[in-house]
Specification:
2 helices; flat
């Protein structure tokens, strides 16, 4: 992953571990998030956890 343990824990907390949040931070071209999957993730996150800040940049690769 392209983040450190502190960032990992903060993002896990912010996203409530909603699948597939970890995949946004894997720095490997074999793992890619399609635009539709990214949008669905953010919509689900906002729906299930309205207090979450969805302005986080989930495309850190």
């Amino acid at each position: 992953m392209s983040i450190n343990i502190k960032e990992y824990l903060n993002l896990a907390k912010e996203t409530a571990g909603l699948y597939p949040w970890q995949e946004f931070f894997i720095a490997d071209k074999k793992f890619s998030i399609e635009q539709e999957q990214e949008e669905n993730f953010k919509e689900d996150l906002e729906l299930l956890f309205p207090e979450t800040d969805i302005s986080l940049n989930f495309s850190l690769k």
